[in-house]
Amino acid sequence: MTTTEERPTAPSATARAFPPGFVWGTATAAYQVEGAAAEGGRTPSIWDTYSHTPGRVVGGDTGDVADDHYHRFREDVALMQRLGMASYRFSVAWPRITPQVSADALGPVNAEGLAFYSALVDELLAAGIEPAVTLYHWDLPQALEDAGGWTSRRTAERFAEYAEVVAAALGDRVRTFITLNEPWCSAYLGYASGVHAPGRTEPAAALAAVHHLNLAHGLGAAAVRRAAPGARVALTLNLAWVRTEGTTAADADAVRRVDGLQNRVFLDPVLRGRYPDDVLADTAGVTDWSFVRDGDLDLIHQPLDALGVNYYSPTVVRAWDGTTPRAENDGHGASAHSPWVAAQDVEFPELPGDKTAMGWSVDARGMTELLLRLHREHPGLELIVTENGAAYDDVVVAGRVHDVERTRYLRDHLAAVLDAVEAGAPVTGYYLWSFLDNFEWSYGFSKRFGVVHVDYTTQQRTIKDSGYWYASVVRAHAVPATDGALVTG
Ligand code: IFM
């Protein structure tokens, strides 16, 4: 039976339609939702170690249980089906697949680990939902970190072998493999500011990590193509729409520097086969980049079927005068160590206006600007919004979550995606972050991004108003143009 709140919203004069074939999905990541940290042969990842280290994660939260998705995936897939999702983007936990990996060898494949993801894929396909698999969403096996982690090229080599194993096992049913999720976070938050696992604060290590993550992408992409020749290979980046409200040449230079560190240091090697000269020059005082070996850039510069774009919030910078306290509202957590390697003269002013519970400024224009920039600079490259969404402080009242701010955020960002599409950007899908409330890294369970609320005591799932609303958008294949249509039910 269709309940009132699930009734389809027909496209109307006040709705804007998406192109035929546009894919609607929702996303999660293994460590954030699965739980079962010590089950099924899984060994610890860097996030197990980090979250179990006192003082690292708000409230001492860990992913030990999280959303218990490992045990409840059938129920969760049914919920996705009820919301009309066409696709589910999830990640595979590397420590479930090769739990004995070392820097020198991948070690035996854990059949139980593969069986879990195989069952998930089958469940999704039976529900008419297309799986999109991210191979690495930050849960590096701890043994690899102990041998250098992403500062070591052996991690990239082992990653490619692991990617080949997963693609060989799932490639008969999975059409889209995403090598890495947001290598910016793995490198700079993990190795420079230390607010993510493994919690290191060494700028030179962060740049070595950047390169080895790029290498892992390239080697991994080739491995997926070998094992699953029919699959599409993508890479997901958290790209920034960097702008300044300043007017000086130094402000413009701050934009260039941050754009280099966040966007071009990943886009250029992957899509053009070279590192940007200005980034190499900016960071020369930190590292000589001698970890880049002859031939690496050819290995990184693999054909890419689509680029995954994660966008949440704008990045606003200005030149720092070096005297007043440096503003650090970059949205990436508090640390005495900046993630912005070699950009000490840049600051991140606080913006007026709406903010999410993460303190992130809301500005949907950035979504359009980013997609159009990518289209301009890399014409013909298929783009998929692999994450977008917002955290708010939700409460369940009489079985409902009236999260109108999230709904408005989603509406505005979907409209912004459509603006880009109508201006010619080849955006083919949108994955809402996130399906479920989950373990938000160093914020633990204190930040809720889901369109489905999770009670962490009972594991009860409650579809939020935004979830019903998103379902109505999916059914209508259109986004309402006015606030009047924001509330369903
Ligand atoms: O929860 C994260 C996700 O794992 C990666 N992208 C950003 C999300 C919100 O912070």
Sequence-ordered SSE layout with sheet pairings:
Blueprint: E1 15-17, E2 23-27, H1 30-33, H2 46-51, H3 69-82, E3 87-91, H4 94-97, H5 111-126, E4 130-136, H6 142-146, H7 153-170, E5 176-181, H8 183-191, H9 203-227, E6 232-238, E7 242-244, H10 249-272, H11 277-282, H12 296-300, E8 306-310, E9 315-319, E10 346-347, H13 365-377, E11 383-387, H14 404-422, E12 427-433, E13 452-454, E14 461-463, H15 465-476, E15 478-480
Parallel strand pairs: 2-3, 2-12, 3-4, 4-5, 5-6, 6-8, 7-9, 8-11, 11-12
Antiparallel strand pairs: 1-15, 9-10, 13-14
The structure holds 5-hydroxymethyl-3,4-dihydroxypiperidine.
Characteristics:
489 residues; alpha/beta; TIM Barrel; eight-stranded parallel beta barrel; three-stranded mixed β-sheet; 15 helices; 15 strands; globular; binds 5-hydroxymethyl-3,4-dihydroxypiperidine
Overview of the structural elements:
There is one protein chain. The protein is an alpha/beta fold and 489 residues long. The chain has one domain (16-476): TIM Barrel (Alpha-Beta Barrel), CATH 3.20.20.80. The protein has 15 helices and 15 strands. The protein has an 8-stranded parallel β-barrel with strand order 2-3-4-5-6-8-11-12, surrounded by 7 helices. A 3-stranded mixed β-sheet has the order 7-9-10, with helices on one face. It has a two-stranded antiparallel ribbon with strand order 1-15. Strand 11, helix 14 (404-422) and strand 12 form a beta-alpha-beta unit. Helix 3 runs parallel beside helix 5 (111-126). The model is unreliable at 4-11 (pLDDT under 50). Bound molecules: 5-hydroxymethyl-3,4-dihydroxypiperidine (IFM). 5-hydroxymethyl-3,4-dihydroxypiperidine binds next to loops.
